[in-house]
Write a structure and sequence with these properties.
Length: about 325
């Protein structure tokens, strides 16, 4: 009974997002973890710069190369910080190097794209700059990676939070490019009130940008064209892993949590703010499941019985989703 009451409270908080409390959510966005330590030059990781003609700049990639030539590639996207703000990066928050280094898979982690949704923006933004990430990730980058690392041309993509939304849209925009997609705590719907509010919280509240420079005003058809929920039919034939917690305290939400680092202030923020965010994400993910079920498109779902919007759960998701990803790349 007490647990049900807590869950209802989290769901009410999640609905507040759609009612316009974007500024409050953005101001309380989780801070950097107290327990993380920078590891960009970890053994087994190489740094590569690739020029993007679409964005007219070099993009940093952190790559875990396969030990064998002719291997597939997993593109692993960061969240809202784009890996630009230490320590918001897969390498610094998870065991990705140890876990994937023996999997005969090239792992490519782009650094950049903060608050961009890894999409093609219609205009340069005074704060967030020029963003043509869809073009870069789906057109410019794959042939370079294939050549540089002698891959077999088979790809998968995974992302968390903001990029958990983006990986679905990227796969829809480039049919056949990715054999599997793993979305951890992403909100597929971006044109409905809750989805639009979440996008606004990320782009404007957290990033200081202007969503009108991304997909135009609210009545622009680009919002619908880039909505992964509405366009879910385009995911047919792609292996899918989709996950979300419910916002309640879970096994990693305590002082002993790997990324909490014994910091009680950080833990309180993770429980309240990250819990509220994940409760909203849970509803988004339930909507995606209903949509895919209605279309007859299969997916592997992981609706965790507890857990906040935080890195330890995304590390768990990486491990849990790996068999699906690996099978798709065979």
């Amino acid at each position: 009974m007490h647990r049900d009451r807590l869950l209802r409270r989290k769901n009410r908080l999640a609905r507040f997002v759609s009612l316009g409390l974007i500024g409050a959510l953005a101001m309380l966005w989780p801070a950097a973890s107290a327990g993380a330590a920078p590891t960009p030059n970890a053994p087994g990781v190489v740094e590569v710069y690739v020029y993007s003609p679409a964005m007219a700049k070099n993009i940093l990639l952190r790559v875990i190369p396969s030990r064998s030539s002719g291997s597939p590639t997993l593109y692993l996207l960061n969240g809202a910080a784009g890996g630009e703000e230490a320590p918001w990066d897969w390498l610094e928050h998870t065991d990705v190097v140890n876990f994937l280094s023996d999997k005969d898979t090239n792992v490519v982690i782009p650094i950049g794209g903060r608050e961009s949704y890894y999409t093609d923006w219609i205009a340069d933004d005074p704060v967030l700059g020029r963003n043509k990430w869809r073009t870069f990730l789906t057109q410019e980058l794959p042939p370079i990676i294939d050549s540089m690392f002698s891959t077999n041309g088979r790809n998968a993509i995974a992302g968390l939070s903001m990029s958990g939304t983006a990986v679905l849209a990227l796969a829809e925009s480039a049919p056949g490019l990715y054999r599997s997609v793993a979305s951890y705590s992403g909100c597929a719907g971006t044109s409905d009130p809750i989805g639009r509010a979440y996008v606004t919280a990320v782009v404007e509240g957290r990033g200081g940008g202007n969503v009108a420079n991304m997909w135009g005003p609210p009545n622009s058809p680009l919002w619908v064209e880039n909505d992964a929920l509405i366009n879910a039919e385009k995911l047919r034939g792609t292996a899918l892993y989709i996950s979300a917690g419910n916002g309640l305290a879970g096994p990693h939400d305590n002082l002993a949590g790997r990324n909490v680092g014994g910091d009680p202030v950080f833990l309180a923020q993770q429980l309240v703010v990250s819990g509220t965010i994940e409760a909203a994400i849970n509803q988004c993910t339930q909507n995606l499941r209903a949509r895919l079920d209605g279309l007859g498109i299969p997916a592997q779902y992981n609706f965790r019985p507890a857990g906040t919007h935080s890195w330890d759960y995304w590390q768990d998701d990486l491990h849990t989703s790996w068999p699906l990803i690996a099978n798709s790349l065979r």
